[in-house]
Amino acid sequence: MRKIRDVLRLHFGSKLSNQQIADALRVSKTNVFNTLSRCKESGIPWPIPEDLPDTELESAIYSERHTKDKAKELPDFEYIHEELTRPHMTLELLWNEYSQDNPEGLSRSSFYRHSRKYRKGLSISMKVIHKGGDKVFVDYSGDSLRYFDRDTGKWVETEFLVSSWGGNSKKLEQSDQLLYRK
Questions:
Q1: In a domain, 71, yes or no
Q2: 53 phi, psi to nearest 5 deg
Q3: Which has the closest alpha carbon to 108: 95, 93, 122?
Q4: pLDDT band at 65 (very low <50, low <70, confident <90, very high)
Q5: 130 and 168 in contact (C-beta within 8 Å)?
Q6: 104-147: pLDDT as tens digits
């Protein structure tokens, strides 16, 4: 049980500092400060009525409307998820944009946490069945690469392609037998 009555008694009755109250009750100084702040916000009178049960006192002080961290407006994660499909777009860039528009909004870590939570809620499924080794899928990466040619002493731009064989759920040993069959 929280020591609300004791904190208030020592603060108003004995006129002790927050540190002295924390030492006497073996709680943190922050806990004492938060309890006194919540009592002030809730308008609980001093002295507390004797017939007021501890459960009602606690619910009056720690109710949802008196919480310190008010619910912050969440960004549109559907838009953010869509933006992440663009080339060179990162969650860091989107958070920077969000934080400039909403300086009192979510912190970076909270933004990332809510983004992960949104992505986990998406149902992602695309079952495509391919006959093993029947098709080769090739995709252009979108960005060019470059390398340094030592003979000419110049940088050479190249295109980068990614390819893979389509397959099904059969075991790899079966395809190996087909590939190495004499």
A1: no
A2: -65, 155
A3: 95
A4: low
A5: yes
A6: 888 899 999 999 999 888 887 777 777 777 777 777 767 777 88
For residue 127, is it within any domain?
no
DSSP per position, 94-118: HHHHHHHH-TTS--HHHHHHHHHHH
- Our count of domains for the chain comes to 3
**Ranges assigned E (strand) in the chain:** 136-140, 145-149, 154-158, 161-165
- Whether residue 28 contacts residue 22, with contact meaning beta carbons closer than 8 Å, is answered with yes
Instruction: Express each pLDDT in 2-60 by its tens digit.
Output: 688 888 888 888 888 889 888 888 888 888 888 888 888 887 777 777 787 878 878 77
Query: Is residue 45 in a domain?
Result: yes
Q: Is 103 exposed, middle or buried (0-12, 13-18, 19+ CB in 10 A)?
A: exposed
